[in-house]
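Table S2 (text version). Query chain:
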Amino acid sequence: MDKYLKLFQNMRSPLLIGAKEPIKAENWLLRIGKIHDGSKVSPVTFALDGEANKWWRGQHQNKFGDLHSMLIDWGDIVGTLR
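Corresponding structure-token output:
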């Protein structure tokens, strides 16, 4: 298992289940930002569940195509969510 994913999971990252309420999504970004080291997105995607995970898969395909999550920066997901 990736060492960053293991560390991320050990910090009990909050899940984002849906992003219909902008305040909840913003609060999630702020909490994850405290845990995440600011580099790549891959570990953060494990904290997306339900509708939020479906949303991210669609955004990933539309904006980044076949680019692996390990190559997408944290700023990209923040910009996409906001």
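Notes on Table S2: Residues 8 and 43 are 7 Å apart (CA to CA). Residues 3-81 form one domain.
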